[in-house]
Specification:
By secondary structure, this protein is α+β, with helices and mostly antiparallel strands. Helix content is 28%, strand content 23%. The protein starts with 10 loop residues before the first helix and ends with a helix.
Length: 562
């Protein structure tokens, strides 16, 4: 491949190819939405799609979960170890959900990889990663707060071919069918993933056929170098120094904890190093994450402090070094349970953000509610008598910025382009009635600029019985404030029984819920920025009119008596 531009590599052609690669990611995204069987994919958009070059460097990634920013390219890099280039054929499709290798998060997140071959030569991969509602395991929904080893969390697929030169591996399909509680839905999501990846393969091959391998390969390399140059320039413009922070995760699901997270971030000479030495050892319970999740968390933090409009590709991340010994909460090794890895992932993004925020107040806000708010409910629909698993994340309050209030009711920093399941769909598909979904006005997040408001969501069970799994962190600690701003509020879950009793449900698996019981989830407010007594009176009046704060809070925190 030529290393320098030629007449064949004129800037217009290169730009057309680069834009086409980005468009391919968006088309793959739409194919996934239109063909999947699970609301967590086609409504919540808990997935990511993208393209890599032949070596596994990320070329383009479509919208979706930002917390998957290091999962597609690293999956390809591990796949090439299991399936070297000379063994790959047109029509091959590889599946993996292994947490302990590249691409790995937890078993519910399954990656589909399609090698792209042009004239017999490997030129890239089309990839997607999506949350399958059911992959088996000891608990419905395949997410558990009580797992003690990976074997309890579901079916473990480790870089296996589901298609071999276009031939479906029916035996593997039957293994999946026999080990999941929702086989039609799970296999539908498998084929949706294959359809999306094959769409990417088809479009990339059209580029190679039109422009030739030399030109397209050059455009890919040039796109990576472009991301590298822009990110290095952005890093050089940031304050240099060593920035440190600590935080905690309350428990691991089994009642152990708290667990310490620690980071030292060094920014200098166009590079960033994040050192997590001193973080707690891996936990007995499933709050652990493996190294891929740590890498993706740091990448998300990097995108937050550099220009987020720079296309996300492998070149952007060449300036980042990550240090963390094996066997910590963030680098767990087999057979550690990792079902709730996403709570650690969110915590790491915010930990890096917490370290850098005091020096980069204009770029980074105060702390946010810091939880995916993952809620899973399994039962039988009262009308259809079909088994269902409801699974969705929940929004909360983000921290204030240096010149503005925090955002109300936004998904956490790892969720990205994520949405709620619409009320109408949830009520028709699952055995629940949603009686309340609103901002709450509990105290927290006061400041010259106020933290964003958290929400309260009520599910009333209409099934005769169901079983609740709740996975909330930041339930004792609070989102941090900046420059004299107050802390936000904590997250919590509780079950209001039909008999009037209440039970906490912050971290629980398989909690029996009876018809008429109400599940209430309350997410936290973000932290405030600046002295609350300096808040503009009109802003306080507006908060009172909107019901964001109470008159008592206005008086006690802001000194405002109306």
């Amino acid at each position: 491949m030529n290393k320098h531009p030629t007449k064949a590599h004129d800037p217009v052609t290169l730009q057309v190819i680069k834009d086409a690669l980005t468009a391919i990611g968006q088309e793959m995204f739409q194919v996934m939405i239109r063909t999947s069987m699970s609301p967590i994919i086609y409504e919540t958009t808990d997935f990511a799609v993208g393209l890599t070059d032949a070596k596994g460097e990320l070329i383009a990634q479509g919208n979706g979960v930002s917390g998957f920013l290091a999962t597609l390219d690293t999956a390809v890099q591990s796949a090439l170890i299991h399936h070297p280039p000379h063994t790959l054929k047109a029509g091959d499709v590889i599946l993996t959900n292994s947490p302990y290798e590249g691409g790995g998060t937890h078993l519910s997140d399954v990656i589909v990889l399609v090698p792209i071959l042009f004239q017999g030569e490997l030129v890239g991969f089309s990839a997607n990663k999506s949350h399958w509602t059911e992959v088996g395991g000891k608990d419905a929904g395949s997410v558990s707060t009580t797992s003690r080893e990976i074997f309890q969390e579901g079916l473990h697929l480790k870089f296996v071919k589901v298609y071999d030169e276009g031939r479906l591996n029916q035996a593997l399909v039957e293994v999946i069918r026999a080990n999941v509680r929702l086989p039609e839905q799970t296999l539908g999501d498998l084929h949706a993933g294959v359809a999306a990846a094959r769409t990417g393969e088809k479009r990339v091959l059209q580029l190679f056929e039109r422009y030739g391998a030399d030109t397209v390969n050059f455009a890919m390399a040039d796109l990576l170098n472009y991301g590298e140059r822009l990110t290095a320039s952005q890093l050089r413009d940031l304050p240099s120094g060593v920035f440190e922070a600590e935080d905690l995760i309350e428990e691991d699901g089994l009642g152990n904890g708290p667990f310490k997270l620690k980071v030292k971030v060094t920014v200098a000479d166009g590079r960033m190093t994040a050192d997590f030495s001193g973080t707690s050892p891996q936990a007995p319970g499933p709050i652990n994450s493996a190294r891929t999740a740590l890498v993706t968390a740091v990448r998300c933090a990097l995108k937050a402090i550099t220009d987020p409009d720079i296309p996300a590709n492998g070149g952007c991340f060449r300036h980042v070094d990550i240090v963390c010994p094996e066997g910590t909460l963030l680098t767990a090794v087999s057979p550690a349970p990792v079902s709730l890895y996403y709570e650690s992932l969110v915590a790491v993004i915010e930990l890096v953000w917490k370290a850098l925020a005091p020096a980069m107040v204009g770029k980074l806000p105060a702390g946010h509610y810091r939880s995916v708010g993952g809620t899973f409910l399994a039962g039988t629909h009262p009308d259809s008598q079909q088994f269902y698993v409801l699974g969705e994340p929940l929004v909360g309050g983000w921290g204030a910025g240096a010149d503005r209030d925090g955002i109300n009711g936004l998904f956490c920093c790892a969720n990205g382009e994520t949405y709620n399941i619409p009320v109408e769909l949830a009520e028709s598909r699952y055995g629940v009635r949603i009686e309340q979904y609103a901002f709450h006005n509990e105290r927290g997040g006061a400041g010259k600029f106020r933290g964003g408001r958290g929400v309260v969501l009520d599910y009333r069970l209409t099934s005769d019985e169901a079983f609740l799994t709740a996975t909330y962190s930041r339930t004792a600690s609070r989102p941090w404030g900046l420059m004299g701003g107050c802390e936000g509020s904590s997250n919590r879950g509780e079950v209001l029984r039909a008999d009037g009793s209440r039970e906490p449900s912050n971290m629980t698996t398989g909690m029996p819920i009876k018809k008429g019981d109400l599940i209430r989830i309350t997410t936290g407010h973000g932290g405030g920025v600046g002295n609350p007594r300096e808040r503009a009176p009109e802003a306080i009046r507006r908060d009172l009119r909107n019901g964001y704060i109470t008159a008592e809070e206005a008086l006690e925190d802001y000194g405002f008596a109306g």
